[in-house]
């Protein structure tokens, strides 16, 4: 896994044309930003990304979380009667990882109480994509409420795929990378090496996600209210 990390995405580079066309069309349908390399426009906007292996940058991680939080807050404000805080994801563009994505969502849903992940085939707060990327798997956003998780084939063969997916999903929920942590810490990502297969967040990580969604969403809703 070359990338459980946070970084600035470079301009789009050429990939398989079929992948580019497929993801570009899916992006328009989902309302989420597709991987830059999957877009036909070579001048795609620079995005921030957080991945599985590398040097963590907290500012980029926060940008991804804030984008998802903003998307959820807008929906909550439009549906004030909604009882549960739900983050919707679309996994239609990552069919090879359907099982891992479902497992990661179930792990998080059983671990935290203030936010839930829910699959949808329509408009989502973020999407999953799959393909080949020398930087590995990562979560990325343009900072404007659109984001995605990219799952790299090679990295998911080298490392435990459910752990990779749960780790990247942890970025969606607000957790930064901590590569120096032990295997028992989900956000240590690829730091402990390929032998680490733990896909579960520890008690500190669970508590942090609950705190972020209890207080962060309240602030996001207040911001939405002031812009109306």
Features:
single chain; Collagenase (Catalytic Domain); 7 strands; 228 residues; 6 helices; 15% strand; disulfide bond; alpha/beta; signal; disordered N terminus
Walkthrough of the structure:
There is one protein chain. Residues 1-31 and 37-47 have low confidence and may be disordered. The protein is of the alpha/beta class and 228 residues long. The chain is 40% helix and 15% strand. The relative contact order is 0.20. The protein has a seven-stranded mixed sheet with strand order 1-2-6-7-5-3-4. It has a domain at 85-219: 3-Layer(aba) Sandwich (Collagenase (Catalytic Domain)), CATH 3.40.390. Helix 2 crosses helix 6 and helix 3 packs across helix 5.
Q: Which stretches are low in confidence, meaning pLDDT under 50 for 5 or more residues running? A: 1-31, 37-47
CATH fold topology of one domain: Collagenase (Catalytic Domain)
What can be said about the biggest beta sheet? 7 strands, mixed
Mean pLDDT reading: 78
Concise account of the structure shown:
By secondary structure, the protein is of the alpha/beta class. It has 6 helices and 7 strands.
Strand and helix map with partners:
Blueprint: E1 6-8, H1 17-30, E2 48-51, H2 58-78, E3 86-93, H3 98-111, E4 116-119, E5 126-131, E6 138-141, E7 147-152, H4 153-158, H5 161-172, H6 203-226
Parallel strand pairs: 3-4, 3-5, 5-7
Antiparallel strand pairs: 1-2, 2-6, 6-7
Helix pairs in contact: 2-6, 3-5
Subcellular location: Secreted
Pfam family, one: Peptidase_M7
Main location: secreted
């Amino acid at each position: 896994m070359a990338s459980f990390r946070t970084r600035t995405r470079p301009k789009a580079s050429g990939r398989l044309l079929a992948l580019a066309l497929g993801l570009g069309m899916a992006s328009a349908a989902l309302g989420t930003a597709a991987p830059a390399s999957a877009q036909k426009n070579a001048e795609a906007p620079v995005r921030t990304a957080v991945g599985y292996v590398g040097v963590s940058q907290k500012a980029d991680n926060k940008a991804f979380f804030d984008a998802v939080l903003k998307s959820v807050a807008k929906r909550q404000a439009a549906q004030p009667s909604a009882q549960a805080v739900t983050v919707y994801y679309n996994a239609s563009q990552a069919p090879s990882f359907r099982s891992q994505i479902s497992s990661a969502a179930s792990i998080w849903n059983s671990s935290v109480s203030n936010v839930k992940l829910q699959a949808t085939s329509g408009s989502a707060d973020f999407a999953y994509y799959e393909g080949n990327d020398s930087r590995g798997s990562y979560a990325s956003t343009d900072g404007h409420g659109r984001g995605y998780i990219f799952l790299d084939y090679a990295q998911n063969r080298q490392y435990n795929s459910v752990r990779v997916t749960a780790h990247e999903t942890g970025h969606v929920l607000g957790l930064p990378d901590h590569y120096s942590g032990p295997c028992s810490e989900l956000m240590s990502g690829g730091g402990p090496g390929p032998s680490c297969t733990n896909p579960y967040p520890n008690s500190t990580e669970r508590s942090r996600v609950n705190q972020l969604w209890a207080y962060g969403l309240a602030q996001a809703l207040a911001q939405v209210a002031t812009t109306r």
